[in-house]
Design goal:
The chain is an alpha+beta fold. It has a single domain, classed as Beta Barrel (OB fold (Dihydrolipoamide Acetyltransferase, E2P)). A 7-stranded antiparallel sheet has the order 7-10-11-3-2-1-12. The chain has a 3-stranded antiparallel sheet with strand order 4-8-9. Strands 5-6 form a two-stranded antiparallel sheet. A hairpin with a 4-residue loop joins strand 2 and strand 3. The protein is elongated and about 75 Å long. This is Protein Abitram. Belongs to the ABITRAM family. It holds the Pfam family GCV_H.
């Protein structure tokens, strides 16, 4: 006769370990988290210096901050979409910055309100700001030829710049930024107020 295989009884401690180490398939997300979700903490600067000028700041554990336009930025509401990105703002062309070495020689030091670039639509133009005081390490030159990346791939290839703030400057900036949850709640509240007014 066939011997039936019995699963061995697990002790209470082994049962607890199994529950901690082996995830329940029903609770797993349908898609794995993106690299941005895994490696960065996202903050938002809503209405930065002007209404509707929402920007994001992805903060990496190493201190780098990736700056870009939030999906609710007023530039995305224009009919024709974004037509151009110009890094020639202020006294110098930001795209000409080449940073080298461990100490980031030649990095420009910016305040949080310093202009990074000008984003143009068919109707208007908008200034994108640093949001964080720090050293400009890189601007995304791909946006000059492919401005549509700002909308189609904002979290990945559509970033505007990479900034390296000092720890003390980051703590000051962080106090003025919103977490993802706070930002979503703010924007949901704004849209419900707008719809009740109309």
């Amino acid at each position: 006769m066939k011997e039936e295989l019995e699963t061995p009884k697990l002790s209470e401690e082994e049962e607890e370990l199994k529950r901690l180490l082996v995830p329940d398939v029903a609770t797993l997300p349908l898609n794995p988290p993106s690299a941005v979700q895994s490696n960065f903490v996202t903050y938002f600067a809503p209405d930065f210096l002007k209404p509707g000028h929402d920007q994001y700041v992805h903060r990496h554990a190493n201190g780098l901050c990736v700056i870009g336009l939030a999906s609710t930025h007023v530039a995305f509401k224009d009919e024709g979409g974004i037509t151009s990105v110009d890094f020639n703002v202020g006294k110098s062309d930001r795209s000409g910055v080449k940073v080298t070495g461990k100490r980031k020689k030649n990095a420009q030091h910016f305040e949080s309100n310093t202009a990074l670039c000008k984003v143009s639509t068919s109707d208007a133009s908008y200034i994108v700001r640093c949001c964080v005081k720090g050293s400009l390490l890189e601007v995304n030159e791909r946006l000059i030829k492919q401005p549509e990346l700002l909308k189609s791939s904002a979290d990945r290839e559509g970033y505007v710049a990479i900034i390296m703030p000092r720890p003390a400057d980051w703590l000051k900036a962080k106090a003025s930024l919103l977490t993802s949850e706070e930002y979503k709640k703010l924007r949901v509240d704004c849209t419900t107020q707008d719809s009740s007014i109309s």
